[in-house]
Design goal:
Helix content of chain C: 10-25%
Shape of chain B: globular
Largest interface: A-C, 97 and 73 residues
Strand content of chain B: 5-15%
Oligomer: heterotrimer
Chains: A alpha/beta, B alpha/beta, C alpha/beta
Number of strands of chain B: 8
Strand order of the largest sheet of chain B: 2-1-3-4
Radius of gyration of chain B: 18 Å
CATH topology of the largest domain in chain B: Rossmann fold
Order of helices and strands of chain B: EHHEHHEHHEHEHHEHHEHEH
Strand content of chain C: 15-25%
Largest sheet of chain C: 6 strands, parallel
Number of domains of chain B: 2
CATH class of the largest domain in chain B: Alpha Beta
Radius of gyration of chain C: 20 Å
Order of helices and strands of chain C: HHEHEEEEEHEEHHEEEE
CATH topology of chain C: Rossmann fold
Chain lengths: ~475, ~260, ~200
């Protein structure tokens, strides 16, 4: 069976109908955008930082094989086991083997979008490994059996009663608890014994430093540190694009990451792992999963600069009003819409159209990815690859024909002129019908500009010409 | 080369009126023409014009934009400058108009196409509009095309010093005052075909936008882009938000309401 | 060597853009160069950390007793403070979970962020202690403040030597439930700085 494209529009419509959730979601993320702006205004060097971050990332991507080898050499020197995974399946197999070797049956992990890409939980759990997310938002999503809806705040689409209900079901807490404070405390109480008895810990990696063979993990809850330091085995799953050349480059990125994401100066925890702690083993799995292919896409390779701050999502007026789950993909929002089609062009063919291409995402991006221009380019690629719905293709084809021929065009407009008290035919065309669902149609007018001009200017000009 | 940048050159202006202005908002087109004439310009409206190609190109169907683009060049190549009361069409011609071969003629057209506000502000450098008076509180809507592509105003995301070409022009109109919405740079959700393919999100964005202006005390929403206003007006009417809409050309041309 | 390693590297070599137009920019030392105590304290407070109050005649012990009156197990990772248990006496990473207050000395702090740095050198190789303890008290000298993230990464050797190095900027925090900011999520519930000298 052919893969069906994600129906973003339909999911978004359902999201909007739930006013309480939608309004909170929009306000919450807009607030993050405002806080990001406040931080930006505090730093006169903000645009300089963006330019440098972009340049460092572009340089690194253009020299990625060398930097990966440099990282590997240094990491091995530091006592880290380095693995390479071509895709999700290989990643899962590698992790499964490491766990098996250690007889590890329980894995605690901090947030990692790469493990979501790889569907790691789904692989490990049937093999007898209990995987527990330790980030609060991610844990809520895990218990609710949903993907993260945002790359930084995974449960941002939920309200307190939703969380109370989920915790009541799984932690046997009060289903009517309406305090975020007390619910967070319940999570701490529930997580501690799991953390203390875990056989292995897993983290992602926000940055990988080639020069030192280290990787850097940023969290606010400290859950990555708990996952990495309590059990005797630490596995880090990291996308191969996460490199920076030098430790000194980190200043540029750390200064912008949390400011862009949440409007806080820095995440509460910024942790630098350069080797296993005493009595422990450390593994890094470098995951490709389509990235090396994306590096070869002339118009889209710079999407690999992404540092996963989520600023583009927070500012996106469409994302704020449709929710991350409506994208039906691991990565949602503007950055998702330009990355997801590289994983599956048909399935995610609708996402570059789930945008007004307003450009706000590009402006807030700390590494200057031209997101809205890539959305525009993806539309072309998808049209050329016949991934547009048939009706849309036909309408555009027809419109293109009419617009190319003045007489056809005038006939279309003029036939509407005759029937202006009803509606122009091209507006009534089925495909355009949704306009009127939540919106009034434009008002009919007595005369088009074209006809006014003919009457009021052409005739005068002609007379003037005759008089001369 | 941009002829308009040369001082003292007498320019022949080709006026482009986008399809939705032609059909639904002819007053915005008439105001644009009259205003340019009042400012002493020599303006022609080529009768065979249709569309700039943007709807097809923005949908990804770039090949389908070729005929419209070719016709556009055929209609406008003979003018020194092309002026249009639409930011998004200007953005298309200037930045994305590549369905056809890039000949000298095409390049001439692309380099000399101006949105009305930037033409008045940057090229004609109009000092005042003695005929214009608009004693109302207005909310200015910068379309994303004018804001982030044509850069006729500062963008909140960049933290750059404030500037606004449309506001500079409107400030020369007697009696006008401005309402400040909470999210002045937020897209209104029109987005071309987005308005029908993502109807629910589009309409929600539009309703939020008009409420924001209304709550800030605006009697009118004024914009250089009629497409945004066509959408916003539809949303305002459905949501029962009492606010009126007017193209910036109409105010600058001396509309009294 | 895994076959995927070579396949990935070779694909990257084939697909990457020409590196020539993308030179590595020189390392940047930007921003506010104030490394003062006031700036640090202001940043610390923004991130939810606090300065441990020092009253007339206070020692670290009396200040901790006043701030954490109910704490039973006070673990010391420094030679000049006793506590009720020494960090070296905790046998496993898990045992650190019993600690109420951990006292540790940071080699440096960052004024821009109110961050303090800890590595295995300060934690006697028991890194979990910094996260499993309920509260952490960090001894810091104003002489060891660096201005911002650029100066920290460029000037501090620890980033090149430590196997585990954490910048803690206030206590553990979350806003994952309906955007409500909660200080003290999974890790330490409070972080206090004790100024020495």
């Amino acid at each position: 069976m052919k893969v069906k494209p994600v129906n973003h529009a339909k999911a978004a419509e359902a999201f909007i109908e739930d006013t309480a959730h939608m309004d909170f979601h929009d306000e919450r993320l807009w607030d993050l955008r405002q806080k990001r702006d406040e931080q930006m205004h505090l730093l006169p060097e903000w645009q300089d930082l963006r330019a440098r971050a972009s340049a460092i990332k572009e340089h690194t991507l253009a020299n990625l094989p060398e930097y990966l080898e440099q990282f590997e050499t240094n990491a091995k020197k530091n006592g880290i086991h380095v693995h390479w995974a071509a895709d999700g399946a290989e990643h899962n197999r590698i992790v499964g083997e490491i766990l098996e070797k250690h007889g590890a049956k329980s894995l605690i992990k901090s947030k990692s979008m790469v493990t979501e890409e790889c569907c790691m939980r789904e692989y490990l759990e049937p093999r007898g490994v209990v995987v527990t997310e330790t980030d609060l938002g991610e844990r809520i999503q895990q218990l609710d059996n949903q993907m993260p809806s945002h790359i930084v705040v995974p449960a941002v689409h939920k309200l307190i009663p939703d969380v109370a209900k989920i915790f009541a079901e799984h932690y046997h807490t009060d289903p009517n608890d309406n305090s975020a404070q007390s619910l967070a405390w319940q999570q701490r109480l529930a997580a501690r014994p799991v953390i203390l008895s875990a056989d292995a810990g897993m983290t992602g990696g926000n940055f990988v430093v080639a020069e030192t063979g280290s990787f850097v993990v940023c969290t606010n809850e400290g859950n990555a540190d708990l996952s990495a330091t309590v059990p005797g085995l630490h596995i880090a799953t990291i996308g191969i694009e996460r490199l920076v050349p030098r430790m000194a480059d980190m200043g540029v990125f750390i200064r912008m990451l949390s400011r862009s994401a949440l409007g806080s100066p820095i995440t509460q925890y910024t942790t630098h792992f350069r080797g296993p702690q005493k009595g422990s083993e450390m593994h890094v799995v470098l995951v490709d999963n389509g990235r090396s292919h994306r590096l070869g896409m002339e118009d889209f390779w710079t999407s690999l600069k992404c540092i996963r701050c989520g600023a583009c999502m927070n500012t996106c007026p469409v994302y704020r009003r449709s929710g991350g789950l409506s994208y039906g993909a691991v990565y949602s929002g503007p950055i998702g819409a330009i990355i997801d089609p590289t994983f599956n062009e048909r399935k995610y063919s609708t996402l570059p159209f789930a945008s007004t291409m307003n450009g706000s995402c590009t402006n807030v991006c700390p590494v200057k990815i031209n997101i809205h221009e890539q959305l525009y380019k993806w539309r072309r690629v998808l049209a050329e690859h016949h991934e547009l719905p048939f009706v849309k293709r036909e309408v555009m084809h027809m419109a293109g024909k009419i617009m190319g021929q003045p007489t056809l065009y005038r006939a279309a407009i003029n036939s509407t002129e005759a029937a202006l008290s009803t509606m122009p035919r091209f507006v009534l065309y089925n495909w355009l019908n949704p306009w009127g669902k939540h919106r009034e149609l434009p008002h009919p007018v007595k005369q088009t500009f074209h006809s006014w001009y003919k009457q009021n200017r052409l005739k005068t000009k002609k007379k003037e010409g005759e008089g001369a | 080369m941009r002829l308009a940048s040369l001082p003292g050159v007498r320019m022949k202006i080709g006026l482009f009126i986008p399809c939705y202005i032609d059909a639904f908002y002819p007053n915005a087109g008439i105001a644009t023409l009259e205003l340019l004439e009042k400012l002493g310009q020599d303006v022609d409206y080529p009768m065979n014009q249709t569309c700039c190609g943007q709807p097809m190109a923005n949908s990804g169907c770039n090949k389908d934009a070729a005929a419209a683009e070719a016709l556009f060049v055929k209609n406008f190549a003979k003018y020194d400058v092309i002026v249009m009361p639409s930011g998004s069409c200007t953005h298309h011609v200037r930045d994305n108009f590549d369905a056809i071969e890039q000949t000298d003629e095409v390049r001439h057209v692309r380099e000399n196409t101006f949105e009305l506000v930037e033409f008045l502000h940057d090229v004609l450098k109009v000092e005042d509009f003695p005929w214009a008076e608009f004693p109302h509180k207005v909310g200015l809507h910068n379309s994303c095309g004018t804001l982030r592509a044509l850069r006729t105003a500062s963008m909140s995301e960049l933290g750059e010093p404030f500037f606004s070409k449309p506001m500079d022009l409107l400030n020369k109109v007697r009696g006008i005052s401005f309402a400040t919405p909470k999210r002045p740079d937020e897209c209104c959700g029109f987005g071309g075909t987005f308005s029908v393919t993502e109807e629910a999100v589009s309409a929600k964005m539009g309703a939020d936008k008009v409420r924001d202006h209304h709550q800030a005390g605006a009697e009118y929403i004024v914009s250089a882009d009629t497409s945004c206003m066509m959408h916003q007006q539809g949303c305002a009417e459905r949501a029962g938000v009492p606010i009126r809409f007017i193209h910036i050309a109409e105010i600058l041309n001396g509309a009294r309401e | 060597m895994s076959p995927s390693r070579d396949a990935i590297l070779s694909r990257l070599r084939d697909n990457r853009p020409d590196p020539k137009p993308y030179p590595l920019p020189p390392v940047a030392r930007l921003g506010d160069m104030d490394n003062g105590q006031a700036r640090f304290e202001n940043s610390l407070q923004i991130l939810g950390g606090q300065v441990l109050e020092r009253q007339e005649g206070d020692t670290l012990a009396t200040a901790i007793a006043r701030r954490f009156p109910d704490s039973k197990i006070i673990c010391s990772a420094v030679p000049d403070f006793e506590g009720t248990i020494r960090i070296e006496e905790l046998g496993t990473p898990q045992q650190a979970a019993s600690v109420d207050v951990l006292v540790v000395r940071a080699p440096f702090g960052i004024a821009e962020m109110g961050s303090i740095y800890l590595s295995e050198a300060q934690l006697s190789d028991l890194n979990s202690a910094a996260h499993l303890t309920q509260h952490i008290v960090v001894i810091l000298s104003a002489k060891n403040l660096t201005a911002n993230m650029h100066t920290a990464y460029m000037d501090r050797p620890e980033f090149h030597t430590a196997k585990y190095g954490v910048l803690m900027s206030g206590p553990s925090a979350t806003a994952d439930i309906q955007g409500v900011l909660i200080r003290g999520a999974q890790g330490v519930r409070t972080l206090s700085v004790w100024w020495e000298d």
